Amino acid sequence: MNIKIAEDKEQLGELSGSQAAAFIKQAISEKGYANIIMATGTSQFQTIDYLIKDTDIDWGKVTMFHLDEYLDIPITHPASFRKYLKERFIDKVPPLKNYYLINGEANPEDECKRLNDLISNHPIDVVLCGIGENGHLAFNDPPANFETKDPYIIVDLDEPCRMQQMNEGWFPSLEAVPTKAISMSVHQIMKSENVICSVPDERKAEAVAQSIEGEIDPIVPASILQSHPNCYLYLDKASASVWETQMSS
Question: Residue 235 and residue 15: Cα distance in Å, rounded?
Fold first, then answer.
């Protein structure tokens, strides 16, 4: 795991966004195309902002998948990840070669099958992701399923995860946060050639420390990133604070 600590979330976004851009351009140079996975949430704001400023990326050679989506909320909902990606990424770059969004309003088993068939033909060059306050990776809450080989799975969202979504302002109350989602599996994330994990903010500091220093354990889903040979973890001073304190003690 390659760990980079930025002064603040803006510098974090510059570092993670530039590294993601480099991997995308490298894949296009070597193969003629790139397949990527985009994440959502507040942790990705600065990374995406920097990535879309890179005018040297030939987006017409890029195919995009994304990590997760709630079940049973429309694309017009403020918390919809399809809405997020359309507004913050897809509509702000030149037309992509293709993109595949998770339709949380469809039959979930059928939607997983559709996505699983699609991604099986698209080896992933770079995945952008974050770490949840409960240590989750995508919507794989603890204890995460490290065993399933299915690329997309239906998951239950635990209360700490749902509290995070409410506290970040996506929902007006805990009761309004869905209890189920479609998520990319841990196994599929780990199949990516490169992982760019962006984690700003002090509220993530404990989860970051456990993910870096603890045993690889489904109870801390993001700890699995320790075993990825090309994982780049980008922190700011706030999110790195607990880990740095442990390292100095």
Answer: 10
| 178 neighbors 79 (Cβ within 8 angstroms) | no
Which residues are CB-neighbours of 167 under 8 A, at least 6 positions away?
none
User: Going residue by residue through the chain (249 aa), what tens digit of pLDDT does each one get?
Assistant: 999 999 999 999 999 999 999 999 999 999 999 999 999 988 899 999 999 999 999 999 999 999 999 999 999 999 999 999 999 999 999 999 999 999 999 999 999 999 999 999 999 999 999 999 999 999 999 999 999 999 999 999 999 999 999 999 989 999 999 999 999 999 999 999 999 999 999 999 999 999 999 899 999 999 999 999 999 999 999 999 999 888 876
Confidence (pTM): 0.95
Domains and CATH numbers, the chain: 13-200 (3.40.50.1360)
